[in-house]
Specification:
Layout lengths: L4 H14 L2 H10 L5 H5 L6 E2 L6 E4 L14 E4 L2 H11 L18 H12 L9 H14 L4 H8 L16 H12 L1
Antiparallel strand pairs: 1-2, 2-3
Helix pairs in contact: 1-2, 2-4, 6-7
Length: 183
């Protein structure tokens, strides 16, 4: 089930108040729509803040594969995800979330258990971390974002033949829609 926007905003505020590694992970996912394993397995070098458009590079690593070839992508950072990325860059590990990733393995199951336990009393009975990914799609739809851009941001495979042609949308176009969604 998707998470209502007011509940997402409440969770994001709580993440900023608690301000620890688990809340950075949750905040990062909340405004990017990344899969938990994608976020937990990020290297610090996958977080790009020193450009006009801050963004995440989702790419395979030896410790964490990606679900599909369409999962490799760049995601602009806005709102809570930008806050989390800045906090992550302040620590000195090579990995964004060293609690869950050590360069050999990425333990997304452990991250899922910890985050879901924290979220459970704060959300409806059916919402889990993965629900934030479903919410991202709905949030982009709400600003009338074209479905092929939604697919690219979320790393979803598109059923359209034409979507496999070309390089896809450039970062400024993706950022425009992410900023609209952030509202």
């Amino acid at each position: 089930q998707p998470v209502p926007l007011d509940a997402i905003r409440r969770i994001q505020r709580e993440c900023m108040n608690v301000d620890d590694e688990n809340r950075w992970l949750l905040a990062l996912i909340s405004d990017t729509g990344m899969r938990l394993s994608e976020a937990a397995g990020l290297a610090r070098d996958d977080i790009v803040l020193d450009t006009d458009i801050s963004h995440i590079i989702v790419r395979p690593h030896r410790w964490r594969r990606l679900k599909t070839k369409d999962s490799a992508r760049h995601i602009p950072l806005v709102g809570a995800s930008l806050w989390a990325a800045k906090r992550i860059q302040q620590h000195d590990s090579s990995y964004a979330f060293p609690r869950y990733c050590d360069g050999k393995i990425c333990n997304a199951n452990s991250a899922s258990a910890a985050l879901n336990k924290w979220m459970k009393p704060r959300l409806t009975d059916h919402a889990v971390v993965h629900s934030l990914r479903h919410s991202m799609r709905d949030r982009l739809r709400a600003v009338e974002c074209p479905s092929d851009i939604i697919d690219q941001i979320g790393g979803w495979s598109s059923s359209s033949i034409g979507s496999s042609y070309g390089k896809g949308y450039e970062l400024p176009v993706l950022a425009k829609w992410m900023k609209m969604m952030e509202g």
